[in-house]
Design goal:
By secondary structure, the chain is mostly helical. It has helices spanning 2-11, 13-31, 49-52, 59-66, 70-101, 105-116, 123-134, 140-147, 162-187, 191-199, 204-228, 236-243, 250-253, 256-267, 270-298. Helix 14 (256-267) runs antiparallel to helix 15. The two termini are 24 Å apart.
Length: 305
């Protein structure tokens, strides 16, 4: 067995060397930092450091749950990510099918480039665009409303508007990247299936419904499972740059990541912030295990593990 293992190492040494940078990256930035989990069970002080600070059991978790914000940030994080998964995947699949069916390759390339461009725009820039669009005094939206004699909308003081705004902005940013993955999956479908369906008299909508969408299921399941693994991990860059520290909007926009960041900045409570982060990771692990189990019960060949 041992000889066989080293034989495989020698035989696949080129592939293993290509894999080595990724292994080092995740080891350094994902596995080594896991030692910091102990902070969730300690009363951190700078003189003792991570491992020298005194243990305090579950006090950090107790403080987090008694703060009154645990349920709000957990609910917001899960519901936003669930909405992002559904809306983004629907738009991405629709755009991928549209681009696949478009015959003009120049239009396809231009449209695909335009959709992909927002993915590269920083959330800082997106936040600035949103501010100039929704600002109560001189934002573009209110300027247009005033021009037509309508009352301006105070977006930054009304929490109920933000779920829709954040979902639409997330879709705008993500649709291009996801479309490319689904388009690649569609182009890998055997073209003879489409030719046979066309010969049998199937129209474009029947080909999409009977051939394209069923063959996209494996890709959809994999991408959704990967997204579900992060369902309790909010996009900090998005929420912080879009909302900032506007307390009036926290009831509908505060997620676990922004709560942890604000706890560190305002109260400098490293122990409680670590407890919230640990709680977030455990929820994510449980969610992906349950989702993968459900997929295995339905079709084990489509599960992640």
């Amino acid at each position: 067995m041992k000889k066989g293992f080293w034989g495989d190492v020698v035989q696949y040494r080129t592939l293993l060397l290509m894999l080595l940078p990724a292994v080092i990256f995740f080891f350094v930035f994902a596995y080594i930092p896991m030692a910091g989990i102990v902070l969730a069970f300690k009363q951190f002080n700078y003189s003792g450091g991570i491992f020298g600070s005194p243990w305090n059991g579950l006090d950090n978790f107790r403080f987090f749950f008694q703060s009154g914000d645990a349920w709000t940030v957990t609910r917001n994080t899960a519901l936003y990510n669930l909405a992002f998964i559904i809306v983004n995947n629907v738009f991405q699949i629709m755009m991928a099918i549209l681009l696949f069916e478009v015959a003009n390759k120049w239009f396809r390339k231009i449209f695909q480039t335009m959709m992909f461009l927002p993915y590269f725009i920083s959330w800082v820039v997106v936040g600035a665009i949103a501010y100039n669009l929704f600002n109560f005094e001189y934002g573009t939206l209110n300027v247009v409303l005033k021009f037509f004699g309508l009352n301006p909308i105070d977006v930054y003081n009304t929490a109920s508007y933000w779920p829709i705004i954040l979902i639409l902005v997330s879709a705008w940013k993500a649709v291009g990247y996801g479309t490319i993955m689904y388009l690649a999956a569609i182009t890998s479908i055997d073209s003879e299936m489409y030719e046979a369906a066309e010969i049998d008299g199937a129209n474009i909508f029947q080909r999409i419904w009977r051939i394209t969408i069923p063959n996209l299921f494996p890709t959809v399941i994999i991408l959704v499972l990967l997204a579900i693994g992060n369902i309790f991990r909010g996009d900090f860059g998005m929420f912080y740059n879009m909302v900032g520290n506007n307390g009036l909007l926290f009831s509908s926009t505060d997620v676990i990541d922004t709560f942890v960041f604000r706890s560190l900045i305002t109260s400098n409570d490293i122990g409680m912030s670590s407890a919230a982060g640990f709680y977030q990771s455990v929820l994510g692990l449980i969610t992906i295990l349950l989702a993968n189990y459900a997929v295995r019960k339905y079709d084990k060949d489509r599960a992640l593990f």
